[in-house]
């Protein structure tokens, strides 16, 4: 099978070549014929692209959940394979699939068969027997946002460094991991000051990537596996497989906490993480204005749909602090508090808008490292302590 032309010639890339992308049809839904004489398994699958996975913006076909589709004498039969612990998900999908197919001319009967396997509940992937590393991760927390541009990765990097500082003081150095799951736009390596490629131990399916480390944080990112100017042009199934292998085939060692920096939205990476790794919860990052909080709320509802608790809201760029110490609400006020109430969670903290945060991210020296006693760093450290207290109660 021909793989993407942008594959880097680096040894680390074995990780992805083991599972090349699955070719997908690109025909528009408008081309689906609805009369019974032209109905086929392919046209049924095309129609099923109208059915979204509950809480997500992506359809069940592109998620790879439709295993078979058949058409015989007026009966459309579909088989779905799900990984979920939520009994409402199969029921909702059965209802949506039946409604979707019954609306097609010529369909007299719809048969929907759904097989489910439970999502992992032991802190590891579904096939954890082949890899012991995830079992050594005590807690896993997603850092998410509904939209881009709210500083989510900057927040994730600084929170990881703050957690490393707090845990080191408590006698647990090297126990923080940061997984960058933004496959198309990985920015964590730049922000935390890493370059080069990770080492590999072993061969074949059992080979393990060794995470790189900086500022007391173990890091894995697509940005460490491709050349700097190489774009990643992948479809859904490849992204999902990559995210799964970031958990299974990375030798994280013993971690107190693994932070997972997710891309914006509710797509492939989010579903893959929810199905591959038991998340203790998610932190939703937003800025104060309504345009950000409305979309961040959708991201929070998505996690609730897949039974991942919201640990809190982080309001980034909350205010500008001028040299005289005065606060200026450039993006409005109260958005974080309102969102926390809507999602029935807490406001973890408010991160100020400071030029030093931006320059620290650009130089690979996070503000929590450069100025650990500053206003912003104190806020990150307070969030880190609150998060650790929440996780200790689980």
Note down, in words, how this protein is organized.
This protein is an alpha/beta fold and 394 residues long. The chain has 2 domains: 28-117, Fe-S cluster assembly (FSCA) (GMP Synthetase, Chain A, domain 3, 2-Layer Sandwich); 128-392, P-loop containing nucleotide triphosphate hydrolases (Rossmann fold). Helices cover 32% and strands 18% of the residues. It has an 8-stranded mixed β-sheet with strand order 8-9-5-10-4-11-12-15, with helices on both faces. Strands 1-2-3 form a 3-stranded mixed β-sheet. A two-stranded antiparallel ribbon has the order 6-7. Strand 6 (200-201) and strand 7 (208-209) form a beta hairpin. The chain starts with 13 loop residues before the first helix and ends with a helix. The model is unreliable at 1-35, 121-133 and 232-236 (pLDDT under 50).
Summarize the structure.
It contains twelve helices and 15 strands. It has helices spanning 14-17, 41-47, 88-102, 152-169, 188-192, 236-248, 268-276, 290-305, 335-342, 355-363, 367-370, 375-392, and strands spanning 66-72, 75-83, 109-117, 140-144, 176-180, 200-201, 208-209, 212-214, 217-221, 257-261, 281-286, 310-315, 320-321, 327-328, 347-350.
